[in-house]
Specification:
Number of strands: 3
Shape: globular
Radius of gyration: 19 Å
Length: 147
């Protein structure tokens, strides 16, 4: 009896990873060209732009990034003077990160570009395919939250 073989090309986790990576790389061209940002830097900028103030731990959880990547991204955005760090009053090991005016301006410039990218990406699909992918992703996220 031959051992069972896993065909990666039809394995859903692999397909989702490849799809997410491809979409992320395509979008990364926009913020890399515009601001020279890496993916972790973009995720940090957008997380802070959306939420206002966060800790590095919160950023890592929100963006699913390892703490090393968050740390490097924070250091680079701080070097650019796009974010500031404020020590926590109760725990000096914790810092609250906030975008500066320059960081917020960069984020606000990128928001319409990100939304346009999403619209153009979804426009490649028929209406029923768009609906199916939005519902399918939401259902999978919900199912994984319940586990």
């Amino acid at each position: 009896m031959e051992p069972e073989i896993l065909e990666l090309e039809s394995f859903l986790p692999y397909r989702l990873y490849r799809l997410a990576d491809t979409v992320s790389r395509e979008f990364s061209r926009i913020y890399k060209e515009r601001h020279g940002l890496t993916r972790p830097e973009w995720r940090t900028l957008s997380g802070l732009g959306q939420r206002g103030t966060m800790t590095a731990t919160e950023l890592g959880e929100q963006s699913a990034m390892h703490k090393t990547k968050v740390s490097r991204a924070v250091a680079e955005l701080e070097r650019r003077r796009w974010l500031t760090r404020m020590p926590d009053e109760n725990d000096r090991r914790v810092e609250h990160l906030t975008l500066t005016k320059a960081g917020l301006a960069a984020y606000r410039e990128m928001v319409p570009l990100a939304k346009a990218f999403e619209r153009e990406l979804l426009a490649r699909l028929r209406a029923e395919e768009r609906m199916a992918i939005v519902k399918g992703v939401a259902a999978l996220e919900l199912a994984l939250e319940r586990k």
